[in-house]
Predict the 3D structure of the following.
Amino acid sequence: MIKLTLGSCPCCKRRTIFVATNYWFRDYYRCLWCWSIPRQRALMNVLKEKRSEYRKLKIHECSPGRATRRQLTKECEDYTFSFFYDSNSLGKVMENGASNQNLENMTFEDNTFDIFITQDVMEHINNPSKAFSEIARVLKPGGVHIFTTPLYHFQKSRPRIEIQEAEIINVLPAIYHGDPINADGCLVTYDWGYDIAEFIEQASGMKSEIIEFPKSKFTYRHGLDADFLEVIVSYKE
């Protein structure tokens, strides 16, 4: 199958053609200019809507997609990014410019960032309560965590693993997603439902909203046509 749509990309902000050659649009419906995929375009749309002045704010993105990293590096005065390399010391700046950070134990000081971004990261965290708490810690008062993660409408959030004596035990069949720094993929540790907002508030004190993209002329024109396209925004008071 091939899907072609003429539209405007929220990521690179250019007139473009969105092209899909695979039925799974979430990972394969791409902008011909910046090669962004729908969840990246959804996130950039929400970033602009919630923080229109984002270009002048201090932003950190954990495990960024190539399209958003390229665009935010180009647009923003103070954008940094990180990956987690477990064989290197935390806080080390790698050859690609990334800081080595573990979301459960970041080296950043309190109240550092205006905006913290994660894309499809929170379903791979061993201890998401700790990660959400850490993100709240490094955000300034009034800061926001804007992120994507697959949300299941008809089930409550559930862990897929247990930690026993520092070992990861799969309590549900192991599923791996693609990983930009590991060819073996990244283990899915949590399935998130729409109760994620309650989980975040209990873990971090931040209140959250879930932004959806129902089918419309707007979503059609901006390449926002895919499953699991929700964007979550958590606010630090």
User: Anything to note?
Assistant: The first helix runs from residue 25 to 28.
